[in-house]
Amino acid sequence: MDNPSLKRVVEFMIAWEQEFGEYISEEEARIRLAELVELYLLIARPLPPKRNDDKEAA
């Protein structure tokens, strides 16, 4: 298993099975892992600067 990408997918498959108690295929693991990375990148990016018109009415 020299392929680092395959190693990560297999690690994810093992973690999935340990966490949820179900086996997923390599293809399903690749999909779920890509979705997880996409979610992380979305959450990790900086928030846009506040605009002046976003102030709450007093």
Write out key terms for the chains shown.
elongated, 2 helices, 58 residues, mainly alpha
Describe the structure.
It is built from two helices and no strands. The protein has 58 residues and is mainly α. It has one domain (4-45). Helix 1 crosses helix 2. The longest helix has 19 residues, at 26-44. It is elongated, with a radius of gyration of 19 Å. 3% of the residues are buried.
Could you state the order of secondary-structure elements as H and E? HH
Strand content of the residues, in percent? under 5%
Contiguous runs where pLDDT drops below 50 for at least 5 residues: none
Strand segment count: 0
Describe the largest sheet: none
State the helical fraction: 55-70%
Task: Indicate the topology.
Layout: H1 4-20, H2 26-44
What would you say about this model in short?
The chain is mainly α and 58 residues long. It has helices at 4-20, 26-44. 62% of the residues lie in helices and 0% in strands.
